Amino acid sequence: MLGNLINQGRIKSPWVVHFDCGSCNGCDIEVLACLTPLYDIERFGILNIGNPKHADVLLVTGTVNQRNKHVLKNIYDQMPTPKAVIAIGACGCSGGVFREAYNVVGGVDKVIPVDVYVPGCPARPEAIIDGVVAALEKVKKLLGMTA
Amino acid sequence: MLDTLVFVTVLLPFLVAAVLLVLREQNLRKVILVATAGVLILSSLAMLRGGAFIMSPAPLWGSLVTLGDFLILAVVLLVGLKRKNQIIVWLTVAQIVGLIWFDFFMVKDHGATPAFFADDLSLVMVLVVSIVGSLIAVYGIGYMKEHEEHLHLTTSKQPQFFFFIVLFLGAMNGLVLANNMLWMYFFWECTTLCSFMLIGHDDTEIARKNAERALWMNVLGGTAFLFGVMLLYKVTGTLSLQEILARGPEFAVAGGAILVPMFLLVFAGMTKAAQAPFQSWLTGAMVAPTPVSALLHSSTMVKAGVYIIVRLAPIYAGTYFSNFVALFGAFVFLATACLAAGQSNGKKILAYSTISNLALIIACAGINTPAAITAAILLILFHAISKALMFLCVGAIEQKIGSRDIEDMRGLFARMPRTALVAVIGILTMTLPPFGMLMAKWMAIESAHGQFLLMIMLALGSGVTVLFWCRWAGLMLATPFAKAAPEAQDGTIRGPLYLLAGLAVVLSFFSPLVYNGLVAPVVAMYYKTAPYVLRYGNFESATGVFLVYPLFILLGLGFFFALRQTRKITAAQAVGPYMCGEQTSVDGKPGFLGPLGQNVTAVSGNYYLEQFFGEAMLSKWINVIALAVLVIMLFGGAL
Amino acid sequence: MTKILLAVLALVAAPILGALITGVDRRITAWLQSRYGPPILQPLYDVLKLLGKQPMLVNTWQALCAYVYLVGAALSVVLLFTGSDLLLIFFVLTVGAVFLVMGALASPSPYSQIGGQRELLQMLAYEPLLILVFASIAMVTGSFKVSSVFELSRPMLYDLPLMFIVLGYALTIKLRKSPFDISASAHAHQELVRGVYTEYSGPYLAMIEIAHWYEVILVLGICALFWSTSFVGMIVLVALTYLAEILVDNVTARLTWRVMLKSAVGMGLVLTVVNMLWLYAQ
Ligand code: SF4
């Protein structure tokens, strides 16, 4: 019973923490746009939390480089399970236009496991919200809940 | 039997002190001290069982006391002359002249007044002095050994040190048991001299200076005391405290004449209790070795000051003077709590918090209702235990980490888990229900009910109090997950720490019994009404109810459950603190990974709110206001 | 016997009620910001989810502190509902608050350190206010007992209108609402990561959230005392007060702790003194 309720909660309350890995700020602005009254992600119980220790979903924008890959790893490690990672934008997915730069490691999945990839340059807010929903679907399947 | 008990509690310390003064053998001293402590504790308990009494020793002792008076005054005069301190010299001369006049010309019936008497208030005081004081003396053994090693002394000054410590205990016991006001004066002066010697013990420049300041302030109080006694004798025609108390209401009705000596005695009590504007002697006293501070702050000296104020409270009950005492107490309570909040020096925080708590006791004496007096007596008891504990903790910590600054105690739990834990317990017993201190504070605030100015000051003061205690407890716990190994510690240090911590908790648990057995009888004796009804151990009165056992049980169960849950936590669940994902750790100290991969240690500090609670600025105003209240008290209340 | 029933009722109903109130609060806040807002049950979902997360700690003190905070808050609500002593309730509330801060200070993270310090300043601001409110209630009823408030023949609000404002001040601080959401915000506003809550996570954060619901019920319960003569009056008064809180939350910006301390203590004292003079004059 309680387990069921908790699973319900997991689906209905994904708190996200947004980490700007090495973005050109294009994707960051789109992430923040999701908070505006137009998109209002709080409808789905999504809150933008500033602290990985409180978060369930890690949104990463931008490429990973040599300088910040340990930060990404640390933040991921400080999130209590269950947790999901969403890579946003072409950069987050694969390195994007910066892919060949000398200090760029590549996409987010080079450092931590990624659950959902949201393409776009920049990714649209709808796509980002859709990404979170896709992550939830994945969680549902993992928890054995049928939608 | 009774003779022996009084002999043991009062005279034995004097004799033991004399032995200790000539004894240079370490181990023998240890044995004697521990044995004396044991004997003192047992005899104080036995005395408690015996209950109230009156006693007059042989007349010879009376003469000895008179001789002692002049001896002490002579010593103080010599000190004053040597240090060229005009205030000390003239005040002492005034006392000598006054005493000669009083002793040989005014008082006719020297032998007629019984020297000792005890009711439950005195017995509670004897308990506090003998138990808490003795434990501090035992702690002194281990502490002084390290202290002297640290100072690299060639000849140990411990004989002298313990001479005064043990003497102090005897003098305090004498003071609280005295019935004859002249005897009390003798013991009063004894404590002044002992504290002077102990504060100056380390003989550094600053120790000498602070000792001198303590001396002149207390000599001022002593002078007030002597002239207070003289006037009291003139008004009442007796030196017997018991008789004065018994006939108290009759004097109070007779008019203001009794209030002038009352003012002088209360004023003497205030100097001894280091109330503003005399707080500087007590904050200066912390230059002395820690056992001295612990002794001065908890069981002796300052408690003598509040003892006399609480003792005399029934006599001035219902007068304007009493209202001013309450106002003064409440003001100093708030003011010194603010001063404590602005400090980072651990001992200074303790010093100001002592003054603040004493002021609360004085405020209770001024409010002067049965409930308030109950609060005052319970505060004396519980404060002595918790404060002694805190001082001993700070002393032990200081010897280990070489600092008494609370900022340096960050994460102390990792280095001294046992002591840190005891210190946290001490802080909790100071600040939180269901412990005795808080219960007494609850009584105090509820008895101030209806007097709004008092209430405002008490409300603000208790808010500030929580601030400085809470952050101190919190920062000691800032440690990494790994369990630390318990620190090595001398048994004479650890023993008193554990005993006091246990005492603080257990006594709070039995506070209904303490109230019934020790406090209610005294209050009923002087105020004719009982302030609280105890139902299932809960304190009930018309104004409120304090649930002792439900709170203890529920909070205790919650705490126990929480402890069990935390036991289950494994190291696998531990992570580093949140540092933006840049956390590193060097020697267990957390930090950020800075540019070029360098470690930048994370440093944090408390808010000391300099702009509100800065010591220099605040002290000036506090002294002025306190002085003004005192003057108004004299002219508006007493005259 | 009724007391035990009341206690159990308080223990069970208070957090649920607190959660619902928080849910409504979020909905209204969203509405004021022309958003749609989360479902009313959202706070419950949040806490359920947090309860199911993996426990993660810097050290064991934090877990201990979270538990004791919860126990303290729950106990104070129980005491209120069983008609106990106001001052005692206040002291028990302090137990919880002190442990919350101790847990925050027990982590070396600068964010939680500053959060803890700021929480202490908030306590410094609201504690005297609460004591003053309780003292003036005692002036009117002649006793600190909650039960004696219900023996009054007319609502206390007539006698203590200004004290109700003082209580409102304390309420804003205690509910962590703007302009006084200095140590941590009730909503997901980010300031110094998450202030005093930073290092609590997973189930421990859930416990703190539940404790916060208890506290919400406690302060609203104290508000309700001001219209003790009728049940409807209580509900209306509490509802209006809470709406006012939400409005204030949405139209003000966060102030510094200095302003908070000065204004809370200053306003509190002035209003108290005026109200008391008025009471004497009557
Ligand atoms: S994907 Fe495009 S918009 Fe997003 S960070 Fe990369 S370059 Fe910028």
UniProtKB/TrEMBL annotation, chain A:
The chain's coiled-coil residues are none
Please give the SUPFAM superfamilies that the UniProt record associates with this protein: HydA/Nqo6-like
For the NADH:ubiquinone oxidoreductase-like 20kDa subunit domain, which residue ranges apply? 24-134
**InterPro entries according to UniProt:** Complex_I_20kDa-like, NADH_UbQ_OxRdtase-like_20kDa, NADH_UQ_OxRdtase_20Kd_su
Q: Which UniProt keywords apply?
A: 4Fe-4S, Iron, Iron-sulfur, Metal-binding, NAD
Q: Which GO terms describe its molecular function?
A: 4 iron, 4 sulfur cluster binding; metal ion binding; NADH dehydrogenase (ubiquinone) activity; quinone binding
Cofactor dependency: [4Fe-4S] cluster
Q: According to its UniProt record, which protein family does this protein belong to?
A: Belongs to the complex I 20 kDa subunit family.
The protein in question is named: NADH-quinone oxidoreductase, B subunit
Q: Which species?
A: Solidesulfovibrio magneticus str. Maddingley MBC34
Automatic annotation (TrEMBL), chain B:
The residues covered by the NADH-Ubiquinone oxidoreductase (complex I) chain 5 N-terminal domain are 109-150
Cellular component terms, GO, for this chain's entry? endomembrane system; membrane
**Domain spans labelled NADH:quinone oxidoreductase/Mrp antiporter transmembrane:** 178-459
**InterPro entries recorded:** CPA3_Na-H_Antiporter_A, ND/Mrp_TM, Proton_antipo_N
Alphabetical UniProt keywords? Membrane, Transmembrane, Transmembrane helix, Ubiquinone
| Compartments, record wording | Endomembrane system; Membrane
| Annotated Pfam families | Proton_antipo_M, Proton_antipo_N
Transmembrane regions: 6-24, 31-54, 60-80, 87-106, 121-141, 161-177, 213-231, 251-269, 281-300, 320-342, 349-369, 418-440, 452-477, 497-524, 544-563, 621-638
How does this protein lie in the membrane? Answer: Multi-pass membrane protein
Entry-linked PANTHER family: NA(+)/H(+) ANTIPORTER SUBUNIT, NA(+)_H(+) ANTIPORTER SUBUNIT A
Query: What is the name attached to this protein's record?
Result: NADH:ubiquinone oxidoreductase subunit 5 (Chain L)/multisubunit Na+/H+ antiporter, MnhA subunit
Q: Which organism is it from?
A: Solidesulfovibrio magneticus str. Maddingley MBC34
TrEMBL record, chain C:
Fetch the Pfam families from UniProt: NADHdh (PF00146)
Q: What keywords does the record list, in alphabetical order?
A: Lyase, Membrane, Transmembrane, Transmembrane helix
Q: Where in the cell does this protein reside?
A: Membrane
Q: Where do transmembrane segments lie in this chain?
A: 61-81, 86-105, 125-144, 156-173, 216-243, 264-281
The GO cellular component terms are: plasma membrane
Annotated protein name in UniProt = Formate hydrogenlyase subunit 4
Record GO terms (molecular function):
lyase activity
Q: Which membrane topology describes this protein?
A: Multi-pass membrane protein
Q: What is its main location?
A: membrane
